[in-house]
Amino acid sequence: MEFYVKNRIDETKIKRRSIINSIIKYVFAAVSIICASFIIMIVIFISLKGISPFVREYTVSGDPMRVNFWQFLIGREWSAPNIYGVGYLIINTLYVILLALIIAIPCSVFGALLIAKIAPKKIGTFMMVIIEILAAIPSIVYGVFGAGFIVRIVKWAANLFGVQTAGGLSIMATSLVLAIMIIPTITTLSVSAIRAVPRELEHGSLALGATVTQTNFRVVLASAKSGIFAGIMLGVGRALGEATAVTMVCGSMNSGPTFGLFQRTNTLTSVMLASFNESEGLNYDIRFSAGLVLVVVILITNLILNTVKKKLGRVVTK
User: Fold this and answer.
1) pLDDT of residue 314
2) Do 105 and 24 share a structural domain?
3) Which of 86, 120, 146, 316 has the fewest C-beta atoms under 10 angstroms from its C-beta?
4) Is the pLDDT of residue 1 over 60?
5) Which range of residues forms the domain containing residue 27?
């Protein structure tokens, strides 16, 4: 009798757990569907708005107007309300990010190596806290810092070399602000990648007669390549999507592309944000078109970086 009662109790518990598990499963499924539906709605809204300037006519200054897709895609001028071209903006965006990466990658990797392997533990912990705080600072703060400090430094450097600049608003200022913004992201992931390198590899290198410096650069960094590159990818993603800080220091050049370090520039994100003063009409919808171009640029960039990351992973494995 006791055995029968015990089995009944166990069956009841199993059924109760099964019901709870089913409820939890359906709750998570519902939450996932809701989140996915939000993403789908956003994509549909942006796509419809972004395509509209090429398929419908707008009234601009009393005249009907429709944007030509190819002229928009390869255009070298953005001058509302009549001329919209993002060709030069794509080039400017990639150029500014390339300069930012040239500054940020060495600082981030060497900083991560210092935090993870060289500095005493307490100093490394303190530095890591500072890096995490910098990563959490809103972009508007970086923009204000750039407009109030970096722009002045760039202006002083331009005057030193006898170069004219728009008060310091320039490609150099934009690249420096973006570099400062992405350094914490790249550094954080690089530290994690370096700390994940097995100690046996370091000990083996030292046992073979390599110095600590040689071990850090040729063994540790080489083994952490994949993780470091993942940090670079996240940094590129943040830089590509940054608008507020870039708009505050770029100078808003309406034509291009521009390559001089002390020249003004414009990017896909800054042109979407600048002079945004209405919520309808061509000047509003065309910004969604620029947003679609930005999404495509980000996707292509991520595909290229992912391919390079996989190849680096294979090299490290070999």
Assistant:
1) 62
2) no
3) 120
4) no
5) 2-55
**Full-model pTM:** 0.85
Task: Let me know whether 108 and 32 are in one domain.
Answer: no
Torsion from C-alpha of 45, 50, 54, 55, nearest 10 degrees: 0
Q: What is the pLDDT of residue 275?
A: 66
Taking the C-alpha atoms of residue 122 and residue 129, their distance in angstroms, rounded to an integer, is 11
Extract the tokens encoding 141: 């703060």
At residue 263, φ and ψ (nearest 5 deg) are: -85, 155
For position 279, what pLDDT does the model report?
Answer: 65
d(CA 312, CA 289): 35
Predicted confidence (pLDDT) per residue in 173-210, tens digit: 999 999 999 999 999 999 999 988 888 888 888 888 88
Contact 196, 231 (CB under 8 A): no
Size (the chain), residues: 318
Question: What is the count of structural domains for the chain?
Answer: 2
**52's tokens:** 């509209």
According to the model, what pLDDT value does residue 45 have? 87
Residue indicated by tokens 């990639």: 94
